[in-house]
Amino acid sequence: MALVTMKYEMSKAEKGRYAVPAFNFFTLDNLIGIAQGAANKKSPVIAMASVGAMKIMGEHTTVRMCEGVASDFGIDMILHLDHCTDYDMICRAVDNGFTSVMIDASKLSYEENVELTARVVEYASKYGVSVEAELGHVGGKEDDIVVSEREALFTVPEDALRFVNDTGVDALAVAVGTVHGFYKSEPKLDFPRIEKIHELLPHMPLVLHGGTGVPDDDFRKAIAGGVRKINIGTELKVHGVFDVSKQGYAQPGDDPRSVSKLVIAKCASIVEEKIDVMGSANKAG
Ligand code: 13P
Is 104 a catalytic residue? Predict the structure, then answer.
């Protein structure tokens, strides 16, 4: 049991019409909870390190931690570098054993995005490492931006087709109405846009970012429309780690190890809930 590439799991998900859940982690307890939940449900799982989290944990430690945890739980795990804008850092992640990387050049022009993404694909593919890129722009905490301005950043289906042909990416993050972080009002996903992109790119796994706070039914509709990877970060960080730790440490004289156990159990239970919604249970292996 080991770290595996994302490409294979994505093609299985396309055939089975489900999504592989991807969770951000930044501590060992957090990661163990993710592995525990995936093992309990026999689901494929993607563990994502953000650039900030990887800097805290260290590149080598991040990879070795994931290898160890995958082995202890007897599961295959995909280790993904999330939202990286730096070519050199991506190359180091590939060299050190990440099995999947995201180049996020979504704030650049179309041409610059293509140029940088294609360079990453050229490097990563030599090592069998999968590459995700973003076209359009999924923002964060954008409550001050009016909807029409936000929609201007949505992925244009015809551009998506051109971008995939121009770059050779393995997965495409699309901007279709989600944002990173908690929502102040109900998210409004553009399902026809997802379906149109999937129609033009039937074999390209589409990635939905900003999974925290998206209702289960919206996940199901997005998956029916062609989404094959769903990212969840804030929910696990806040409800899986922060709230539980705050409560645990509020008991005077509490043993930090009991807090670790609580964090692991809560993260695992959130992961299991998401796996049920995404339809990835019993799809491991
Ligand atoms: P949330 O923090 O909104 O769940 O988004 C996570 C994400 O998309 C990471 O790339």
Answer: no
